[in-house]
Amino acid sequence: MAVLALSNPVVQSYIVYSAILALKLISVSTMTAIARMTRGVFANPEDAKTLKGKVKFDDPVVERIRRAHLNDLENIPAFWVLGALYLTTGPVAAWATLLFRVYAVSRIVHTIVYALIPLPQPARGIAFGIPYIIKWYMGFQVAMYYISAV
């Protein structure tokens, strides 16, 4: 098992890209709130009353951003878990950093092509598929590394 010291470049890389992904996740919540306010549509009557809008659950712009957010909530936590477990296998720093970087950039691109500037497929599929493969790769590496311990 690898030593997980904060001075380890792989650990530092994981921390940086995990923080970027956390900030990205927070920013999509903000995007939803901004879309609701600018469009005057809210999910709760008290918000609609206070902000002089209306209750509406099917605004296409808000729902697109919410779906992008849900997609992040379904995918980024798995990266955090698998990435942390992957650190324990002692991966090569350059390779692990590349995986973390490509994952983070792909998730950012996914949000852009899904919620901000919707592009036709396969843009969103590619931006989803690349980090999906990275998660599977890290999970497989962890399982193979520790399989003999079982």
Automatic annotation (TrEMBL):
<keyword id="KW-0812">Transmembrane</keyword>
<keyword id="KW-0496">Mitochondrion</keyword>
<feature type="transmembrane region" description="Helical">
    <location>
        <begin position="76"/>
        <end position="96"/>
    </location>
</feature>
<keyword id="KW-1133">Transmembrane helix</keyword>
<dbReference type="InterPro" id="IPR001129">
    <property type="entry name" value="Membr-assoc_MAPEG"/>
</dbReference>
<dbReference type="GO" id="GO:0005741">
    <property type="term" value="C:mitochondrial outer membrane"/>
</dbReference>
<comment type="similarity">
    <text>Belongs to the MAPEG family.</text>
</comment>
<dbReference type="InterPro" id="IPR023352">
    <property type="entry name" value="MAPEG-like_dom_sf"/>
</dbReference>
<protein>
    <recommendedName>
        <fullName>Microsomal glutathione S-transferase 1</fullName>
        <ecNumber>2.5.1.18</ecNumber>
    </recommendedName>
</protein>
<dbReference type="GO" id="GO:0005789">
    <property type="term" value="C:endoplasmic reticulum membrane"/>
</dbReference>
<dbReference type="GO" id="GO:0004364">
    <property type="term" value="F:glutathione transferase activity"/>
</dbReference>
<feature type="transmembrane region" description="Helical">
    <location>
        <begin position="14"/>
        <end position="35"/>
    </location>
</feature>
<keyword id="KW-0256">Endoplasmic reticulum</keyword>
<keyword id="KW-0472">Membrane</keyword>
<dbReference type="InterPro" id="IPR040162">
    <property type="entry name" value="MGST1-like"/>
</dbReference>
<keyword id="KW-0007">Acetylation</keyword>
<keyword id="KW-1000">Mitochondrion outer membrane</keyword>
<comment type="subunit">
    <text>Homotrimer; The trimer binds only one molecule of glutathione.</text>
</comment>
<keyword id="KW-0808">Transferase</keyword>
<dbReference type="Pfam" id="PF01124">
    <property type="entry name" value="MAPEG"/>
</dbReference>
<comment type="function">
    <text>Conjugation of reduced glutathione to a wide number of exogenous and endogenous hydrophobic electrophiles.</text>
</comment>
